[in-house]
Amino acid sequence: MSDLTKLSLEAALAGLKAREFSSVEITKAHIDACMDAADLNAFVTTDFTNAMKSAESSDAKLAKGEGGALEGAPLGIKDLFCTEGVKTTAGSKILGDFTPQYESTVTANMKADGMVMLGKLNLDEFAMGSSNETSYYGSVINPWRKDEDLVPGGSSGGSASAVAANICLGATATDTGGSIRQPASFTGTTGIKPTYGRCSRWGVVAFASSLDQAGPITRTVKDSAIMLQSMAGYDAKDSTSINKELPDFAAACDKGVKGMKIGIPKEYTMDGMPKEIEDLWQQGIKWLEECGAEIVHVSLPHTKYALPAYYIVAPAEASSNLARYDGMRYGERVEGDNLYDTYERTRAEGFGKEVRRRIMMGTYVLSAGYYDAYYLQAQKVRTKIADDFKRAWEKCDALLTPTCPSAAFAVGREVNDPVTMYLNDIFTVTANLAGLPAMSVPAALDNNGLPLGLQIIGRALDEETVFAASSALEKCAEFTAKPEKWWV
Amino acid sequence: MFTAKRVADKKDWLSGRDHDWEIILGLEIHAQVASNSKLFSGAATEFGAEPNTQVSLVDAAMPGMLPVVNAFCIEQAVRTGLGLNAQINLYSRFDRKNYFYPDLPQGYQISQFEFPIVGEGEIEITPESKNGDGEPCIVGIERLHLEQDAGKSIHDLSPDETYVDLNRSGVCLMEIVSKPDMRTPEEASAYVEKIRGIVRALGTCDGDMEKGNLRADVNVSVRKPGGELGTRCEIKNVNSMRFIRQAINYEARRQIDILEAGGEIHQETRLFDNKKGETRSMRSKEDAHDYRYFPDPDLLPIKITDKYIDDIRADMPELPDARAARFVEQYGIPAYDAAILTDDKAKGDFYERLVSTGAKSRDAKIAANWMMGDLFGALNKASIDLDDSPVNSDGLGGLLDLIGDKTISGKIAKDVFEKMFEGGAKTKESAGEIVERDGLKQVTDTGAIEKMVQDVIDANADQAAKVADNPRLIGFFVGQVMKASGGKANPQAVNEILRKKLGL
User: Fold this and answer.
1) Coil, strand, or helix at residue B21?
2) Distance of alpha carbon A77 from its chain centroid, rounded?
3) Per the confidence metrics, is the pTM higher than 0.95?
4) What was the ipTM of the complex prediction?
5) Which of A78, A93, A111, A222 is catalytic?
6) Which of A54, A104, A179, A185 is catalytic?
7) Going by CATH, does the domain composed of A2-254+408-477 fall within 3.40.228.10?
């Protein structure tokens, strides 16, 4: 039965529909795998009892030839999505045992489509981090362990690890500066951050509202297309949601890249970046050329300002978004001598170091006298970066870049060096700042046998091109490596 | 910009030790938009509901909740802006004002800081003055913006705990900011009356100060008349016209006393204690929050079109100024009366029902006098709102009809009115019924009057003899006859018959 966990989501859905196996069977297989993989610390909360109930009800539907696009498929949910009746922590102590009475739009869409939810996946606290080491619920371990424990990337580290370790068929994730793509790259999985506004933010614990966007982490490009199709869609409850019909993402995967113009931005390189990443990028160019794409060289001159601008805008919004965690209505409260003492103790003890650091930064950049110099300036940079992309789209249909400047690193190595940690996002934040769809595809192993990803960035609302180019890369790369199963 | 060119009339200066002082006043009015649901959530806004029963997930700032702007509130803001003759901005934006307080669940208030929906405008006010007619003056409007109200902290239910009621959290307020154009407490209260009249006429706010859905922050400073502006203090949340005047009088005098003692005014926020009639410090500028305003990333900017504004304009009801002008034209009443009768929608509606319904058309001027005199006087004395008046427009109209057809005299009418007002809603007796019951009908039967006149002359033969030399004595006889008739005799008939009989 254990081979059911090795299926792609696409294959699993086909098998379920064809009644080759039941949802109960495949769900049970994944529950067993989850229990075996406790060492990865991928889950904050499991909900196996309800998962089995969902599986039974899916089987009933499938037996009648009914069911939605995800009917019966056991999936994981990043613990940033509010789930009705299931504890939602955002990886933070401050939320305590908070259990929402409501369901995020994204997970509600997936439940309506028949998903079986295995549980809530670990993440960096409030999605702030690039290594999944800031979670109050402990670090997530990358299944690609070598001699030492490696980080899975972050903030969607639980999602990436779980998908890489075959303990769920796919997982939801969110991406504010690279939190889907970087962990996908670190774990040999695939993930897309769609255009800002494609997936409703309603019911997703906010980090930085103008950047946050949900998307899937899966094992194949087609799987991402299938999951995104279910997750995305207009939602009147989110004012920034896009009211546009969704294209058929899965169909787009088969379109090919013949005649497509792929831009290579010269600025996407970094001092000290391993040569093998540079080489992989060149390899990616060759692959796409071989598939019939035309390669053009483009310039995105403001790229170097993206990371500093991101680390102003994101903390600024976070400092305000996280003000609601004050111990007054839900979550943890640490009583103090008076109201302000209670606030201070609650927030000092409830938030971890990295979250406190970002609240401090964000509060600072919004302060009287600093707003113009930081926040306003960062917003101007944001416009410049968006303009850079607009100019690039005059020459090409999509961009190819490395996803990250490195492979997964050891647990503990960067966590005390925020600047180095922040550099993980250098190639991914631009798509967030400009609101563009971007996908990471596993492309090769480095000299240490660790996965590396390539990134495709597309025009706003043009996920179809991103899926087409990513699919082409996926075919050429033939990335089939799996981590050794050391955790059982 | 901050201009304070206008200098108050000399009569309005406050006397000081070395020189007179002039008060400079600017107001911020918070007017709750009359909407069924909140600015960013679908929760109800009904007044007086049980605590925390009108709270959505958004209002309680649950994790992951997002605001969605209530389009009806935008429309009401535009409508109000048009009523204030103000610039409507095609682009406006919501910002976050960040601070911590338990009745502010989000940790920020969503407000419009940099780009308000309504810009500059102006209105004309007619402050009451001691000698009756007031001089109209113009007050500039700086801006109108939309914002969320906070919840309510309740400190007096427990000795050591504070309770929070979030029913008001997220309710839509319009903040209307005036320019510092007012110079007397009467101007300030007339300004609030005027704004209240406009929003009530428009239906954009109920304007009920007791329920707190219209409240004012008053900025007070003093200066040497026409001189450099002084430092201002802001008195928060004053909730009646009388308190506004009281607070200003107290605060201006306080500031003058400090300045004359060689001190200086520190910019601060003050509270008005309406029991003691004084203001006291709430927080100084040094304690002021850094609100860290920035655009709310959960909301898109509000973009409206000229057509949207034109459609609202086309649908505007008559406003107090236009109504007053029409009253002067249509009913021939003085401008001052018209201004008073239109400063509130309920008054104007009452007046129009009074003069335009009923069997015969009623004398518009007499109707105005009755409303402004007897009716408003009685309501004021009893602290009753016009809407709850025991004598409604039909009741008062019936009384006016009895005067009009000479069934009763004006003097008797005042007694009848008092009886109607006291009986009020309970007895619901009409003027006619009271006149009938108490036998107050005016006596116009000349035979009956002649007999009464003759009786009075007979009883006062001495006086009658002196009338030829002193015709003013006729007044005495009129009085005696009226007394004898219990006030019911028609005064004109009495006069005529008396003159005839006394040979005048």
Assistant:
1) strand
2) 11
3) no
4) 0.96
5) A78
6) A179
7) no
